[in-house]
């Protein structure tokens, strides 16, 4: 099926990945409903989607609100659950809140979807389920060693998906273990900030970027447009049962290498970051993270298309443009 033949519900669709997915689907002519309480998502992301008129609907509510979720699910063929409390630090401070939103929220909206006939579900898992695993790169068979309540909530999501598949033999439910995703609409400040937008915000302000640790930790960085392509490919290739896949670029860099790449691109347009400030590692942070994407390429026929330098170049140019307009 093409995307225009499906009606999509995206929970957490005002957030980073969800808003990029919604925009891509709407451009292709697919009807999209977004359910989001704006606790971490941004209204400006919703406002951008308003141009698609009747194709787009926004329901401002939490995934735990069964009535709102049922309304948002009306007519849906596909559920993409991205709603979550995603800050590792916040999960350590408020573990019960994280489990409530991430585990019970997923179970609530999924149960409603199943009752209403939805048989294709995609949900956000995380590379955090692997913890500090010494065997790199990580495959889907690598041992899970969650080191935070956030990671534990994602293990719970995967268990819930397996339970659903056992009860509904015609259900396709796929968990995507996201590694480090970057791109437009990503938060640069607050507890949900990721390293790339935080550093680009520092470049825009002319202040030093902060590195937690010594900079030798590795990250697999995947552009959000490739993640959108993964989600659409998973839905097209849907088959009964529960499955889980790593989602990343298949290439890791250290934070120091990432900083040098940003500065290399910045030097071309007169925007170089001051020397970094090094601070103590944060609780729950993983030192080494390298993603094996062979299963996703084999089963779904997807492969990443945006190189790190290409993806960063567009973000650096946006940063330069904002700085020039200040």
How would you describe what is shown here?
The protein is α/β, with parallel strands linked by helices and 326 residues long. Helix content is 41%, strand content 17%. It has 11 helices and 12 strands. It has helices at 16-27, 43-49, 66-73, 88-93, 95-115, 149-167, 195-205, 224-236, 255-267, 294-300, 308-324; strands at 8-11, 32-36, 56-60, 78-81, 120-126, 172-178, 180-182, 210-212, 218-223, 241-247, 252-254, 277-279. The strands form 3 sheets. Strands 3-2-1-4-5-6-10 form a 7-stranded parallel sheet, with helices on both faces. Helix 6 links the parallel strand 5 (120-126) and strand 6 (172-178). Helix 1 runs parallel beside helix 2, helix 3 crosses helix 5 (95-115) and helix 9 (255-267) crosses helix 11. The longest helix is centred in the first third of the chain and has 21 residues, at 95-115. It is globular and about 55 Å long. The mean pLDDT is 93.
* Shape estimate: globular
| Average pLDDT level | 93
Strand content: 15-25%
Given helix and strand content, the structural type is alpha/beta
Report helical residue fraction.
40-55%
Encode the helix/strand succession as letters.
EHEHEHEHHEHEEHEEHEEHEHH
Quick structural gist:
This protein has helices at residues 16-27, 43-49, 66-73, 88-93, 95-115, 149-167, 195-205, 224-236, 255-267, 294-300, 308-324; strands spanning 8-11, 32-36, 56-60, 78-81, 120-126, 172-178, 180-182, 210-212, 218-223, 241-247, 252-254, 277-279.
């Amino acid at each position: 099926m093409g995307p225009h033949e499906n009606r999509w519900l995206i929970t957490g669709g005002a957030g980073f990945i969800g808003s990029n997915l919604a925009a891509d689907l709407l451009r292709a002519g697919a009807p999209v409903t977004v359910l989001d309480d704006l606790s971490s998502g941004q209204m400006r992301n919703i406002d951008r989607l308003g141009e698609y008129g009747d194709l787009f609907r926004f329901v401002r509510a939490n995934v735990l609100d069964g009535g709102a979720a049922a309304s948002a699910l009306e007519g849906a063929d596909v559920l993409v659950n991205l709603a979550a409390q995603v800050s590792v630090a916040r999960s350590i401070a408020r573990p019960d809140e994280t489990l409530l939103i991430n585990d019970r929220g997923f179970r609530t909206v999924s149960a409603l979807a199943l009752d209403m006939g939805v048989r294709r579900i995609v949900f956000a898992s995380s590379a955090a389920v692997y913890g500090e695993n010494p065997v790199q790169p990580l495959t889907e068979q690598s041992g899970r060693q969650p080191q935070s309540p956030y990671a534990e909530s994602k293990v719970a999501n995967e268990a819930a998906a397996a339970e659903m598949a056992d009860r509904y033999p015609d259900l396709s439910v796929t968990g995507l273990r996201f590694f480090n995703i970057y791109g437009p609409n990503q938060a640069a400040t607050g507890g949900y900030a990721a390293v790339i937008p935080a550093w680009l915000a520092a470049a825009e302000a002319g202040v030093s970027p902060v590195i937690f640790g010594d900079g030798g930790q590795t990250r697999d960085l995947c552009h959000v447009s490739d993640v959108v392509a993964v989600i659409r490919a998973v839905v097209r290739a849907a088959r009964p049962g529960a499955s889980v896949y790593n989602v990343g670029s298949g290439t890791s860099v250290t934070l120091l290498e990432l900083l040098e790449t940003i500065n290399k691109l910045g030097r071309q347009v007169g925007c170089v970051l001051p020397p970094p400030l090094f601070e103590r590692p944060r609780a729950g942070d993983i030192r080494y993270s390298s993603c094996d994407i062979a299963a996703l390429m084999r089963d779904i026929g997807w492969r990443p298309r945006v190189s790190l330098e290409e993806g960063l170049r567009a973000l650096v140019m946006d940063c330069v443009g904002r700085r020039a307009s200040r």
